[in-house]
Design a protein that fits this description.
The complex is a heterodimer of chains A (about 250) and B (about 200). By secondary structure, chain A is an alpha+beta fold. Chain A has helices spanning about 25, 35-40, 80-105, 110-120, 130-150, 170-185, 210-230, and strands spanning about 70, 155-160, 160, 165-170, 190-195, 200-205, 235-245. Chain A has 3 domains: about 25-70, no CATH class; about 80-150, no CATH class; about 160-245, Alpha-Beta Plaits (2-Layer Sandwich), CATH 3.30.70.1350. Chain A is elongated. Chain B is α+β, with helices and mostly antiparallel strands. Chain B has 2 domains: about 1-55, no CATH class; about 100-195, 2-Layer Sandwich (Dihydrodipicolinate Reductase, domain 2), CATH 3.30.360.10. Classes of the chains: A alpha+beta (about 250), B alpha+beta (about 200).
């Protein structure tokens, strides 16, 4: 697959209502410096551009030189908890089914079923075990509801993407590595640790020489630059902490 | 993919609500909260006081005396539950892959098809050569008419993710759109950074 310029439907009718905008507009390969003009919320825009492709419509960093489409945060499919719940349901229903069928066929009920029924019939509701079980059920239920309603994938930071069909995210640890490497390039920094969270990135650096205040200023500048090179949809605030350590 | 997410989350919420409701019912009765809070539970409320049991003998008698249809109904419900749980479990393990993609849009022009793996490998090969990319891995999922691309990029430590993403969009993804004729090729890109020990700047 090479990037040959022969495009079959280039210049064809503006088909495919989904994509009507963006790609035909970009197809001629606008150089990087052209994009801000396209992304600017200008009034002289071609009328067929749907408003959803205007990055400023999604409170994106509209004034930024490299605006881009702010992509939605990816939502996890919650496969693992779902598989666990499905397995539990499957085992419970399967065991009950087998036993009910066997009892209908004239066999005595299984031991676990008789024990369970006796326990449930013998213990009042204020028994410690019943209460503990109920509390566990409440906690588990709340946890499942939280899992169902929250996006998850907290480890992935969404990126501003150059076009709407592309959703991209950057690993948090990867972002931390990039920031740390950038911090290590500042003269005077002997060691640096960076922790990136979704709203805030904390950088701690040991200063071996130079004035710590100056190093801190340099670090702030460098890390802000590095963060901006990541094109994060929601750039975290960077907090720099330095301490002098001469060894 | 989106539909599976929705189904999973709805069913997880349902399971959570059932557990939460059952647990609260027992806790309210166990701590005798109805009497302490001075509220009267409705008439047929299952558990009202701390001396109630979860499965009284009256319940057992009532359930075993329902008539001939009761046990067949229970068995049918259990069979249905087992089948749904199986389907739900296997839906998590399965990943839908298109197999072959029609080239030139649907219906395929002149019957040309492209294996999904071939397309993925081609995108990965081109993406792996982009500046700042250490390694690229591409999977194609979805239906033949609506393929989805999943791109995993491992960036080199000096890469700029923003610029790399732009290059990915202008290069391999655009080429894939051109060569398959799929004018929209929804793509999900995950960018990581190849880990390495911190080292002094040169």
């Amino acid at each position: 697959m090479t990037s040959e310029p022969d495009v079959p439907d280039r210049g064809g009718a503006p088909s495919s209502r989904h994509r009507a905008a963006a790609v035909p507009a970009r197809e001629p390969g606008p150089p990087a410096h052209d994009r801000p003009a396209h992304d600017r919320p200008a009034q002289d825009r071609p009328a067929q551009d749907p408003p959803t492709h205007d990055p400023s419509a999604h409170d994106a960093p509209s004034g930024a030189p490299d605006g881009g489409y702010r992509t939605r945060r990816p939502w996890s499919a919650r496969r693992l908890p779902t598989a666990l719940v499905a397995t539990v349901v499957l085992v419970a229903a399967g065991a009950a089914l087998i036993d009910v069928v066997l009892v209908r066929a004239g066999r005595p009920a299984a031991l676990w079923r008789r024990r369970l029924a006796d326990e449930l019939a013998g213990r009042p509701v204020d028994d410690v075990w019943v209460l503990a079980g109920a509390a566990a059920a409440v906690a588990l239920g709340l946890w499942l509801i939280v899992l169902a309603l929250t996006p998850g994938l907290r480890h992935w930071l969404p990126l501003r993407s150059p076009e709407p069909g592309l959703r991209a995210s950057l690993d948090r640890d990867g972002a931390a590595d990039l920031l740390r490497d950038a911090a290590m390039r500042v003269p005077g920094v002997g060691a640096a640790r960076v922790r990136v969270r979704r709203r805030r990135a904390k950088a701690r650096a040991d200063v071996h020489f130079r004035d710590p205040r100056q190093v801190k200023d340099d670090l702030t500048t460098v890390l802000d630059e590095e963060r901006d090179r990541m094109a994060l949809a929601r750039p975290p605030r960077i907090v720099v902490r330095v301490r002098r350590r001469t060894r | 993919m989106a539909s599976r997410t929705t189904t999973n989350r709805s069913l997880l919420a349902l399971a959570g609500l059932i557990l939460l409701g059952g647990g609260l019912l027992v806790l309210f009765a166990g701590f005798d909260l109805y009497r302490r809070l001075d509220v009267a539970p409705p008439a047929a409320w299952p558990l009202t006081g701390p001396d109630d049991v979860l499965l009284g003998s009256a319940d057992r008698l009532r359930w075993s005396d329902q008539g001939w249809w009761w046990w067949p109904a229970v068995i049918a419900a259990l069979v249905l539950t087992v089948l749904l749980a199986l389907w739900w479990l296997f839906a998590q393990l399965r990943r839908r892959r298109p197999g072959a993609l029609p080239v030139g849009g649907t219906p395929p022009r002149e019957g040309v098809e492209l294996r999904d793996r071939a397309l993925g490998d081609a995108i990965a090969a081109e993406a792996g050569g982009l500046p700042g990319v250490d390694h690229a891995d591409v999977r194609i999922t979805g239906r033949p008419a609506r393929p989805h691309t999943h791109v995993d990029l491992a960036l080199t430590p000096r890469a700029a993710p923003g610029a790399t993403l732009h290059a990915l969009c202008e290069g391999p993804l655009r080429a894939a759109r051109r060569s398959t004729g799929h004018r929209q090729l929804p793509t999900e890109a995950r960018l990581g950074v190849t880990h390495r020990k911190p080292h002094r700047a040169e």
